[in-house]
Design a protein that fits this description.
By secondary structure, the chain is an all-alpha fold. Helix content is 79%, strand content 0%. The chain has a single domain, classed as MetI-like fold (Orthogonal Bundle). It is built from 11 helices and no strands. The longest helix has 36 residues. This is ABC transporter permease subunit.
């Protein structure tokens, strides 16, 4: 039992468990919907066939590409802005006390509530969707980075000062590597938030994207297309989180020698 537990605790073991869980969930969905004659809950085999028929066409691929581009831009802006602001807030107590009330006020406003404002500001455009995604995803990155910067090891900082490492060099080569695990925690939380905001923003006034296709299919009673869009969205989320998990393990391998044996 101990050997099995140790094997499952490795990177390959966790991957194997994830694959087994995903296959189990897919099998359960397939069996539950196999004989379904409910148009609102079609068989998984029919959904997969529709996905292969529509989402491999130039139109379907263009919609997927539009969603991925918007999501990538929004998440990229959120991570860069969140890290930059988090480092400043976490290291300067005066700045933290000054901006905390405004940050708490802004963070309490759901990003979806700002859709009308974003549409007035940017119109029905890709910029509007990127703005909403970035606004919603910046908070977990910012707060996690600030928490990491607030807890920097005093000995490490004193050593950097003793070696006259200051300014931008200290931020790049001392502070940022130290807070990188916290940055990655915030980014992990931001990815599913970005997917939600991506779909939501595409459902309002957009002309392309996964959310647009799902909404249009629902409005025109093309339920197989609607379900196929939901399936593609789930696959996209799974691929993004899997890719992120691999990237995270590689980035954090330097801080834990035991990670070198887990892939």
């Amino acid at each position: 039992m101990t050997t099995v537990t140790a094997a499952l605790s490795t990177g390959r073991g966790r991957t194997a468990l994830g694959v087994v869980g995903a296959l189990g969930a897919a099998a359960a969905w397939f069996l539950l919907s196999a004989n379904s004659d409910n148009v609102y809950f079609p068989a998984l085999s029919a959904i997969i066939a529709e996905a292969g028929e529509y989402w491999t066409t130039p139109e379907g691929l263009a919609n997927i590409r539009a969603s991925v581009t918007t999501l990538s831009a929004g998440l990229g802006i959120a991570v860069v802005a969140g890290v930059a602001m988090g480092l400043v807030i976490g290291q300067l107590a005066v700045v933290e006390r000054m901006v905390s009330p405004a940050l708490e006020f802004a963070r309490a406003i759901p990003s979806t509530a700002l859709i009308p404002f974003a549409m007035m500001l940017f119109g029905v455009s890709a910029e509007m969707k990127i703005f909403l995604i970035a606004l919603g995803c910046v908070w977990p990155v910012l707060l996690s980075t600030a928490d990491g910067a607030r807890r920097l090891d005093p000995t490490m900082m004193a050593s950097a000062q003793a070696f006259h490492i200051g300014g931008l060099r200290r931020q790049l080569y001392v502070v940022f590597p130290a807070v990188l695990p916290r940055v990655l925690v915030g980014a992990r939380i931001a990815i599913p938030l970005g997917l939600i905001l991506m779909v939501t923003s595409e459902m309002v006034g957009a002309q392309r994207g996964l959310g647009f296709v799902i909404t249009q299919a629902q409005a025109t009673f093309q339920l197989l297309t609607m379900w196929s869009g939901i399936l593609i969205l789930g696959i996209l989320g799974f691929l993004l989180t899997s890719l992120y998990a691999v990237t995270e393990r590689r980035l954090l391998r330097w801080c834990d020698p035991r990670r070198s044996g887990t892939n």
